[in-house]
Amino acid sequence: MTMNDQQGNWAVPPGTTANQGVPYQQTNYGTPTNNNPRVFSRNDSSASNLSYGTNSNNAAPSMGIQAQQPRVSVRSSNSGNVGIIVANRAGDEETEDGRIRNREAAAKIRDAWIYKQIRARQDEFTQYKQGRIFVGTWNVNAKGKDESLSSWLCADWHQHGPPDIVVVGFQEMVDLNAVNVAVENKSQQRSQFWVDRIKSTLNSRENTMGDPTRMYTELAVKYLVGLLICVFVKAPHKPRVKHVHTSSVGVGVMGVMGNKGGASIRLQFYDSTLCFVCTHLAAHRENVAGRNADFANVFNKTSFEIGDEAVKEVIKLGSLNQWAAGTNSVGVSDHDIVFWFGDLNYRVDESIPTERVLELSEKNLLEELIENDQLNIERANGRVFQDFEEGPLTFRPTYKYQPGTDLYEQRPDKKLRAPAWCDRILWLAQEPGHVAQLNYLRSELNISDHKPVMSTFLVTIKDVILSRREEVYKEVMKLLNEFENASLPMVSLDRVKLDFGEVRYDQRVTLPITITNTGQVVAQFRLVPKLDENTLCKQWMTVTPTYGMLIPGEQTEIEFTIGIDNLTSNALNTNKEVLEDVLILRLENGRDYYISVSGSYARSCFGMSVEELVLYSDPIRNVPLDPILRAEKYDFNAKAAMCVPKELWRIVDAIYERGLDERDLFSTPGSPDEVYQIRECLDTGASFENFSVHSMTEVLISFLSNLSTPIVSASLFPTLDIDAQNIQAFARKFLEDMPPIQYNVFIYIVSFFREVLLHRQRNKLSPAKIARICCSCLVSSSQGSPDESKGNMQQLMLHFLETNSI
């Protein structure tokens, strides 16, 4: 397939053929491990493995999966989503012979199956072309002047030629003061200023050389207070662009204002769907959790109302969930390729002093800084940008500069900030081999305290041949009709009882049921809620898939997964819940199958309260869950067995023995395998092996953070600002109001951390860092306390750590 056809001049870098590799290899800091299941594996194929024309070695997914053993993995999250309900039971129709049919569900499942078959054969009717996309981002610090942006937007044109799509994002195009945030009275004016600058740069005579095919057309512009995103396409490609829509999400003040958030544009380019998201996330070096939360909010709340026709086209291109959901909107992940960029505000970890970061940045010694880059760390741990990829950082940190210069800001009258790669560009692709990064650079424009960042990508774009797709569609429909014209569906389940055995805290255990179509007609199945219920199963269980369609002889697996989180653990410990449930599998135009689920909870000290833990001297695994058996074994009217939970004492004592001199204590993560074994030792009373002290500290923080009720309740939060004059009185009242057990635990933990600080010269911990750790694990993050109260609490913790006596 020629890259220069009547639709436009497709960009292939000069000197690079379609089958050559690209010079840039992406760095995926989200590489999965056995203990990081949130980040799924991807085939990081280079451009040399891309397929051109209509032939491909892609095979349809196997329909027969034989695995029967439970799969156990460490839980990473509990979204509470137990699956899609395809249709409401209100649409169920019962026939005279007792059969039940839901026409809405049947139509959705049937169409989803058809599109699934067509997608599996998409290479029979799809041509693949290569194009180039430029993505640029710049926090302009409310500055700007009439000048060409060529050194940023067109820096690599001499090497790769003009891109097919240009996407540019700005942050802080206006001052983020209260008036601008509330009224947006200057945003439109400033956005037009920058759009005009981009247009004049892209379409300058120097860049177009008088060739109309090198001209760019504006597709869409979206702004949100200081955020701006704009997309331009080469004029010859404009007729092949459709379904262009915009969205914006504010996550700033009160979680909704636009001083922070995201502005997005999505479109269909030929037959590939593209989404571009420009964001400005939470600031401040220590606020990693805030940035992670902002990302999640923008990702989950961004929605494009594209209409029924466009949704059906998205489904044909592979987003089957949209059909089952029955909406006329798509989210960020419902696209072939997503580019996410902006001032993400991730900094270099606080463990490296500001002066050291400045020194390394100025000398262009980047390795240590990259290893301690917060975004790299968070992605590696699966806490943010799951499945996204980013190229290697080969340029110096882009923030913070003295405006108008190329010097990092170090003026005496200005606050000294550590340089950081705040400005980033990442991407997410359904087919990872369809995106290859050609470069990842920064510009030296210097009007702002940030440097602009840019990247050019070589992307594989789908171009569907409609006549061939219709032929495939007819073949699929012919096959389907042969079976739909027979009588009733019949399926067999290899089992209807699932016994999960012992299930442990913070783990996921999966068992499959194989369902086989043993009849002569197509069988459609779905899980339905029980009468008077709105969910398919209890909240501690997830099921996938919740619906499906099988042709005769075809089989598939339904996976049932149990996961125990804090909420479930507390309900099990208080006898408000049991690991038992019954699920209903409905065969459309057929019968219902009842699947019973059972399991036993291997009791754990994690997720319990300190009030209950101090009652038992026995290992918690030996304490019965049944309240009657528990009452027979223990005298609850007697005095508590221990002043603090024995589990807490054991882990603190182990950390003390293994060395408080260890560098980066409480900062370096432990081994996931060791963390699991340590938890088992605490629950069973087994002796500790020679575990790493970092694994021990991780378990300590996890134990305190996951108590069913926090050590410091909301009622103890200071209600007034704390200062040097009143902090002693606050501290005294704080301790006096604390319940006895919580008081003992608090004093014990503070005393331990004081001992830790005696070794600060070697372990490199500081009172301020320990205070933050105390606040994170002793104070519940879900209590909704205002920031100033939490700041007062941190100041109070610092006082307890540094004072001579409590």
Automatic annotation (TrEMBL):
- Broad class of the protein's primary localization: membrane
Determine if NAD is one of this entry's keywords.
no
Q: Per its UniProt record, what InterPro entries does this chain match? A: Endo/exonu/phosph_ase_sf, Ig-like_fold, IP5, IPPc, OCRL-1_2_ASH, Rho_GTPase_activation_prot, RhoGAP_dom
What are the record keywords, sorted?
Answer: Cytoplasmic vesicle, Endosome
GO cellular component terms given for this protein: early endosome membrane; phagocytic vesicle membrane
**Where is the protein localized?**
Cytoplasmic vesicle, Phagosome membrane; Early endosome membrane
Q: Where is the composition biased (Polar residues)?
A: 16-70
* Pfam families in the record: Exo_endo_phos2, OCRL-like_ASH, RhoGAP
Q: Where is this region: Disordered?
A: 1-77
Q: Which SUPFAM superfamilies match?
A: DNase I-like, GTPase activation domain, GAP
Taking every annotated instance into account, which residue ranges of this chain make up the domain Rho-GAP?
623-806
The protein's name is Rho-GAP domain-containing protein
Q: Which organism is it from?
A: Cyclotella cryptica
Lineage, top ranks:
Eukaryota, Sar, Stramenopiles, Ochrophyta, Bacillariophyta
